[in-house]
């Protein structure tokens, strides 16, 4: 009987390996915020997911299983979240002002991955930026820079 239970628990753990990232890991918080922004317009596209993978790889040097694990942890954290506060609070403890501004720029990069932005995405980033202590002026500057990186002109960026 004990052998069967042990075998059962081992098989369950193989399908759901132990998390390698702490719940307050800034990489998980960043991924979770990106998922929240991606989902804010009701449509998550593959190009947005690909952009997030590229950003996490570039920002944190993650690849392979580690990259998949942080994405899974971020998605799970986002699914369990009721608001942005948990993630922005974690990130405020780990990031300085410039890094928080850059994070807002990264969120805009995720928005523009599909070539357009919605009112809901604007609202999500406004709330996140506010909670991170990033000024409205800097949020708009980051948006404009992200639009340029995405190859969009000023008229394409306007809502």
Automatic annotation (TrEMBL):
Q: Where are the transmembrane segments?
A: none
What Gene3D superfamilies does the annotation carry?
A: TerB-like
Report the superkingdom from the record: Bacteria
Q: Which InterPro entries match?
A: DjlA_N, TerB-like
Q: Which residues form the Co-chaperone DjlA N-terminal domain?
A: 28-143
CDD domains xref list? terB_like_2
> What Pfam families does this protein's entry cite?
TerB (PF05099)
> What name has this protein been given in UniProt?
Co-chaperone DjlA N-terminal domain-containing protein
Give the originating organism.
Answer: Rhizobium wuzhouense
